[in-house]
From TrEMBL:
The modification 4-aspartylphosphate is found at D56. Residues 7-121 form the Response regulatory domain. This is Sigma-54 dependent transcriptional regulator. CDD domains: AAA. The keyword Phosphoprotein applies. Residues 145-374 form the Sigma-54 factor interaction domain. SUPFAM superfamilies: CheY-like, Homeodomain-like, P-loop containing nucleoside triphosphate hydrolases. Keywords: ATP-binding, DNA-binding, Nucleotide-binding, Phosphoprotein, Transcription, Transcription regulation. It comes from the Bacteria. InterPro entries: AAA+_ATPase (IPR003593), AAA_lid_NorR (IPR058031), CheY-like_superfamily (IPR011006), Homeodomain-like_sf (IPR009057), HTH_Fis (IPR002197), P-loop_NTPase (IPR027417), Sig_transdc_resp-reg_receiver (IPR001789), Sigma_54_int (IPR002078).
């Protein structure tokens, strides 16, 4: 096999090893990127397309195993080669099932290095050309959209179908479910990814300005219009315009949008002339548009034009299986950002997260994990989670019960969470200890 010019990232805390590797790799015409820590490596991976990762295992702070896990999750097709001074780690490599294709023990000869690189790269080529990629692999290829529940897999399959055509899409879902992420995935995974993606928050732009912002205006169209200007639609030419919170667009703007969808043309404010546009429209909403149609605050004809394809992003409470994966992603992100290492979470804390109902969805989960990373010194435990998560009642069984029974159950729950500390429990419940005792006896 011929060696090709590829970007290779080498990660080792030993500068001498980095130097040796670099010399060899450059002599074969590879581009070399060097990192002395996992944190640096992650930053390089974000910015650069890397063709092979060569990493040491034992490093201070975050070790090579964590890097391999991270890369397997976020860059599943990137081949990995481990260079280690500890041959006995072979077993642990098998154990983490991370898809490491080969390993090389130090010291190694130039010839051995060359063989190992060839092997790593050719195995990964086979893997990439295999037509039979599992959904999980495809899912991982979406990088940002984490989750393996049926609901998120359905969304990912739809994205796959939509990404290369310009059908209008309406993304529906509660706040924080990932609607914008879905819109971005449709754009950036498809063949129009090089054209612009323009996001417009229809709720954040004052009603009287939205029209001019969207379609542009001519000089003198209104006070303050000092020169001709293009709008967001012209800026998105060839690409995607994302109309977030479409339910907040005024009826006047809705009428204009309908025209855009019907005629594929826009008219600048103050102009008579139409301009042809070539833009994919993705709209998003967390309000009930059908209800708005009933109340005559949303145009029915626009609704049907927008919903050529509908994507429903389910609330997190309906896909709780995704919680561990999302937590892992956020632990890595904030662990590296705040503590320079991967922070772990106890199973107890994770089960509190799984029990909670997440009204603010993934955005709320991300905030909770971020805060917990800051609050904890080593491992995140129940104590690092906000109180309202710890004491939520699980109403999953449908039996309806008298208030007194629920009250008692809740008091017992708070007592368990405080390790049976009555003073603390009374404080949380904002009642005195005597009342607490009385309520338990009732
Ligand atoms: N499946 C997912 N995997 C990883 N991160 C996610 C996922 N879904 C959402 N997020 C993250 O959660 C946050 C909220 O997502 P996003 O802004 O797309 O939600 P939204 O539905 O547009 O919310 P809003 O209605 O409040 O605007 C973002 O930081 C996003 O990256
Ligand atoms: Mg949004």
């Amino acid at each position: 096999m011929q060696l090709r010019k590829e970007n290779i990232l080498i990660v080792d805390d030993d500068i001498n090893v980095l130097e040796v590797l670099q010399r060899h790799l450059q002599s074969w015409n590879y581009h070399v990127f060097k990192a002395v820590s996992v944190k640096e490596a992650v930053a390089i991976l974000r910015d650069t397309k890397i063709g092979l990762l060569i990493t040491d295992l034992k490093m201070p702070e975050i070790d090579g195993f964590e890097l391999i896990k991270f890369v397997s999750e976020h860059y599943p097709n990137l081949p990995k080669l481990v260079v280690t001074g500890y041959p006995s780690v072979q077993n642990s490599l098998v154990a983490i099932k991370s898809g490491v294709v080969d390993y090389l023990t130090k010291p190694f000869t130039k010839e051995e290095l060359k063989l190992a690189i060839n092997k790593s790269m050719s195995i990964s080529e086979e893997k990439n050309t295999s037509a039979n990629k599992s959904i999980k692999e495809k899912n991982e290829a979406y990088g940002e959209i984490i989750g393996n529940s049926e609901k998120i897999n359905d969304v990912i399959q739809l994205i796959d179908r939509l990404k290369d055509n310009k059908a209008t899409v309406l993304v529906k879902g509660e706040s924080g479910t990932g609607k914008e992420l879905v819109a971005r995935a449709i754009h950036y995974k498809g063949k129009f990814a090089r054209a612009p993606f323009v996001a417009v928050n229809c709720g954040a732009i004052p009603e009287n300005l939205l029209e001019a912002e969207l379609f542009g205006y001519l000089k003198g169209a209104f006070t303050g219009a000092e020169s001709n200007r293009n709008g967001f639609f012209q800026a998105a030419h060839g690409g995607t315009i994302f109309l977030d919170e479409i339910g907040n667009a005024s009826l006047a703007v809705q009428t204009r949008l309908l025209r855009v969808l019907q005629e594929k043309e826009v008219i600048k404010v103050g102009s008579q002339k139409t301009e042809k546009i070539d833009v994919r429209i993705i709209a998003a909403t967390n309000s009930d548009l059908l209800d708005m149609i009933q109340k005559q605050t949303f145009r029915e004809d626009l609704f049907y034009r927008l919903t050529v394809v509908e994507i429903n992003v389910a609330p997190l409470r309906e896909r709780k299986d995704d919680i561990p994966l999302l937590v892992d992603k956020f632990l890595f992100k904030y662990g590296v950002e705040y503590k320079d290492r991967f922070i772990k979470m106890t199973p107890e804390a994770l089960s509190v997260l799984k029990r909670y109902n997440w009204p603010g969805n993934i955005r709320e989960l991300e905030n909770v994990v971020q805060r917990a990373v800051i609050m904890s010194d080593k491992v995140i435990d129940v104590e690092h989670l906000p109180n309202h998560l710890k004491y939520t009642l699980d109403f999953s069984d449908d039996a309806l019960e008298p208030l007194k029974v629920i009250e008692k159950k809740y008091i017992e729950k708070v007592l368990r969470a405080t390790g049976n500390n009555k003073t603390k429990a009374a404080q949380i419940l904002k009642i005195d200890r005597k009342t607490l005792r009385q309520k338990l006896l009732d």
